[in-house]
Amino acid sequence: MFGIKAKKEEIIVETFKIAVIAGDGIGPEVINEGVKVLNKVAELDSGFQFEFTYFPWGCEFYTKHGKMMDDDGIEQLKEFDAIYLGAVGFPGVPDHISLWDLLLRIRKSFDQYVNIRPVTLLKGAHLPLVDAKREDIDMLFIRENSEGEYSGAGDWLFKGQEHEVVLQNSVFSRKGTERIIRYAFEMAKKEGRSLTSISKANALNYSMVFWDQVFEEVSADYPEVDTASYLVDAAAMLMIKDPKRFEVVVTSNLFGDILTDLGAALAGGIGLAAGANINPERKFPSMFEPIHGSAPDIAGQGVANPLASIWSASQMLDFFGYEQYGRTVLEAMEHLLVEGEVLTPDMNGTASTSEVGDRVVHIIDSLIK
Q: What CATH number should be reported for the domain holding residue 303?
């Protein structure tokens, strides 16, 4: 059970404790707007509220302390119901340091083995495909998030020598593979949609043959779900040529990482791309984040697009069981996009980050009241 429940004038108010890691670059700017939206929703409901605790971790922290987060950072985060992450990465700190010592450390420590990335073209968002309709782009990617190609297993032999050898091993366990595929089947069943598996079994003759085998085994438990299976290169082509064939999609860590960036391009751009890192058993906090990165070139200018951060806030509302408010936030975003008056420069507008957040809050206020 999430949150702490307390009586306030005979009304039970549930408090959700959120750890905020605003991070680097534009992270603090966009995360502020997501916090603004979450507080507005809670204000209009009165049955729950959010308690935000901020942590200064990230690349700036690294330059001062030689580490991306406190040594006991994972222990500190265990006390929270969810984590809200802005962005990680900044020039001067190697990408593998910023990724492995913060983001992946959290994902792995809290067994956030489900990564959920919606690829849905909202009303008013730019449609980049000439021969597609808006309703054709409505995918939900379920990406394995704890092992696979990002397991971190391997070796670097004879470093710096003429016969230098690097080994990067993928790890696909029976437990890890089956649980992500089963989660995707449950999602497809719940939503009444088809499920597509994406692999590369013709070339990866161990890991992906195993993946396909497990997918076929699990599919026997879900006869009501229509299924398809594609090689990753064919899937990339078909996402462009015929996006409507993809509804719920399940794939590995690496393939999911790449294809969801392609999906972001199809669904209005990286400024609208949100992601959730879920521990379905809820033994540990889950983490919600925009996936656009820290964009240091525009950091501090107040022009970053906060909509991906706001979308990830709607995913948090869904996770806490307030799907109706999650939908309201998306509806407010669509309203903002359709009216086209308060948009950041990346969407051909002139508004600031905070002005976009303020407008979304105003629309939410009108929708809920």
A: 3.40.718.10
